[in-house]
Amino acid sequence: MQIRPSQTNAIANDATAQTRPRERASSTNAFRQALAGVKTDMQMVTVKPGDTLMSLTRRHLGDAAHQFSNSQVLQLAQTVARENGIEDPNRIMPGQAINMAPMTTTAALQLRQSEVARAQLNLNGPNINTPTLDRTLQRAVAKGYMASTELAAVRDKIISLGKRHHFAPDDFARMSLMESDGLNPRATNGSCHGIIQFCSGGNRGAASAGYGQNPKEITNLSVLQQLDLVDRYFSDTRLKDFGPASLDDLYLTVLTPAARNETRVDAPLNINGKQAAYLYEGRDPSGVITRNSIVEGLKSNARDRLGNFTSTVAKMELSRM
Predict the structure, then answer these.
(1) Helix count and strand count (H, E) for the chain
(2) Any idea what the Cα angle at residue 264 is, between residues 118 and 114, rounded to 5°?
(3) Is the pTM of this model over 0.90?
(4) How far does CA 234 lie from the centroid of its chain?
(5) Burial of 319 by CB count in 10 Å (0-12 exposed, 13-18 middle, 19+ buried)?
(6) Spatial contact of 60 and 45, defined as CB atoms under 8 Å apart
(7) Mean pLDDT of the chain
(8) Is the dihedral of CA 50, 56, 57, 61 positive or negative?
């Protein structure tokens, strides 16, 4: 798909400038609290009878352990095993020395992501602030991907899915901007179709959504109808086990769920096929894709597409004056 270069626009900058100081302060405080909750001293531990990597990981997390799901603890334990050269994470021996340091930064980053997601979702508040999702929806209406009368229902559905599967609605918008130009129900590359690109083939997205025999039929469904398929797919791929899911976990759930097992943010991911240049380190398609490059690529792509849309709207408004 062709991607136009980013355009600077005063409207987009002004709209977000008022919230950025609070966001920075909230993110900084959350990250400091995360670091404080994870033990950083005594990184070397000696295995005692009855210890497992999971129990050692929970013990090392200290007071912050309750903020992690079982799946997240397992990922951290696998990181410790990999970095210590432990071939079988289920077998550690009494007296064995293990360095727990590899999980410390990862754990703190996961805690920060959880805080950011909870802040956006604001589950106990009356209003949910979703600026990226809102602009993506407005752009989808302008491009004819859905009717203006559907906008409110689609927004409510995405927020509802975010609560159920534990992801931030703005991250869903960023993911869809990469996969389908932002909630285009008719988007297709020949083998993958719809708003999150349900792919054909056994154990792929279309089959999970009940369209394994006729995947192209997905493009005949509305955005709202496809969101029901998204709900089913996220349940099958157990997205909520990663919750609150980070942007990279959300995207990998759509692209290649098995790649979620690689938790290191700078490690090359096993992703088949050619992807958008945005997703590669340095935007070099001959290079590798990492969790870091996915996050940066999705955010950059969203800024470019939404920036171009906002700039176009501003020009249209000026032409009417």
Answers:
(1) 12, 4
(2) 5
(3) no
(4) 12
(5) exposed
(6) yes
(7) 80
(8) positive
